[in-house]
Amino acid sequence: MKTFxxxxxxDFMEPLHHLVDRLIPSFLPAALRNxxxxxxxxxxxxxxxxxxxxxxxxxxxxxxxxxxxxxxxxIRFSAKKYGYVLVLxxxxxxxxxxxxxxxxxxxxxxxxxxxxxxxxxNTQKEEKVIMSFSFPNLPVAA
Length: 142
Known about the structure:
Elements: E1 14-15, H1 16-23, H2 28-33, E2 37-40, E3 47-48, H3 52-68, E4 70-82, E5 85-96, H4 98-114, E6 118-124, E7 128-136
Parallel strand pairs: 2-4
Antiparallel strand pairs: 1-3, 4-5, 5-7, 6-7
Helix pairs in contact: 3-4
């Protein structure tokens, strides 16, 4: 008798680190034109358990904003978990054009709010911008 394995929802969880790694290549040409580079410091043990497609779309918007508004820059990704909330940060240090960043992120703020998340921008002088995306990451019910 053969045994068949049926995948569960947890089999489709993707670490946030891998999700970001999967999104970055589509932004590499623009990043290279602007002399930017990426560093992914997100821990490997933070799975995205809920709304993965929405989370990926929001992160893509954040990356696009970072790449298009910075020059000669390191774009660094980091994340932490607080209970059932994940906080992703994209930090840019270098020459940053702050005004368009706010306008660009307003468009994806609505998507973040639909999944119970929030976008926040912290500008420290003109050399450093931190974009934060916090979102609930509730485990999928069996």
